[in-house]
Amino acid sequence: MGKVAGKVAVISGAARGQGRSHARMLAAEGADIIAVDVCQDIATNDYPLARPEDLDETARLVEKEGRSAFTAIADVRDRVALAAAIDAGVAQFGHLDVVVANAGIAPLTAGGPTQAFADAIDVDLIGVLNLVHASLKHLHAGASIIATGSLAAFLASQNTGGIDAGPGGAGYGFAKQVVAHYVNDLALALAPNNIRVNAIHPTNCNTPMLHSRPMYRAFRPDLPNPSRADAELAFPALQVMPIPYIEPEDVSELVLFLASDVSRYVTGQQIRVDAGGFLRAKPWSGP
């Protein structure tokens, strides 16, 4: 029996990157997956987002693990559409046990449009609220809610270390900080119902979000058109451990732990998968 055998998980941003990795790992451990993604670009986000064929590939990978996938193209900014997608998935599988609020964008462009601030918040914060709130009516004792935060939630600003990420970066950092606070307070509210709520805060992660022109420019503002190789020289500056980034599977392992009954008494936690990034940014201040 797998670690999440018989469970059903809804995952936003499931078409690629961390979301796809979470879907695949949870399926490998026995879960059926409701996979949701917008599958289209957002104007202020200066790198391409997933496409419908990416979501189809996530479903294929889930089914390759012997589990079922229900896919829906829905924007996490649209709670009505998102709720309809979740309801349809639950109608197919009969119940919902795990919510993984993973969808996110990083419109990190120095001097970018102010709309990028709003778009980052709408996806990275409101999108989390929408997925969780649209799922609540389906949850029961033993359910687990997992939100994707960021090391940015613990940094003073998105300009830390000389990174100028513009209005979108400021919105991204704000959204992740509020997600952390939300997880804490929601965990308190849902604990009497034996529903757990936790956040995972990754550092740089090897996904299309990281490997994008805006991210390369943010890390290498000294170059007019930095390449991946140029940016990878700067990526390790965020971590204490000598690596440029973690892998999606490093986050998925923690998602699996939090989704499983092994973590049945773990709630309200802010868990960093950051290769020591927090240690570099924040001096020790005592317990």
TrEMBL record:
One Pfam family here: adh_short_C2
Keyword Nucleus carried by entry: no
InterPro entries to which the protein is assigned, alphabetical: NAD(P)-bd_dom_sf, SDR_fam, SDR_subfam_1
Domain of life: Bacteria
GO molecular function: oxidoreductase activity, acting on NAD(P)H, oxygen as acceptor
Keyword line: NAD, Oxidoreductase
Gene3D superfamilies reported for this sequence: NAD(P)-binding Rossmann-like Domain
Record-listed E.C. numbers: 1.1.1.-
Family, per entry: Belongs to the short-chain dehydrogenases/reductases (SDR) family.
UniProt-recorded name of the protein: 3-ketoacyl-ACP reductase
The species this protein was found in: Mycobacterium talmoniae
